[in-house]
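Cross-check.
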Amino acid sequence: MLALPLALSACGGGSGEAAATLTKARFLRKGNAICARGGRELIKLSVEGWKKYRVKEHHTSQAVEDELVRSMLPVRKEEVRRIRALGLPRGEGKRVQRVLAAWEEGIEKGEADPHSLRESGPGSAFYESSAMGIDYGLVKCWLG
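Predicted model, tokenized:
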């Protein structure tokens, strides 16, 4: 199976620090719940994709693998959208914005280079955002 980074209720909210009403703890609880749900969806897509594209002796082409990982990007986009909709935690807006911007850059990199979605380490599409997110406490977005 592909080694994929595991993914990431909307309470409406602004995008600026002044509109932030969530505590960091509540933001992390809700954000990690969004990511846990996304992670389950990514696993389901992966299993369904491998069943669909399985070939004799379980070998697949790079094009098929690229198709599989690229098909998972909408889940990652939805996670970012839902986390943004939470609003920003008090006093943490700029840091969270940087995490989400790095996440969106990872999505763009993955769209342009699907191989980067299968990479680990600095070549991974989500390398920067995962390190930033885990450090912040959004562990379910990358660790499952």
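The helical segments are 24-53, 62-70, 73-86, 93-112, 127-136. The chain is about 60% helix and 0% strand. Passed to J.P. for a second look.
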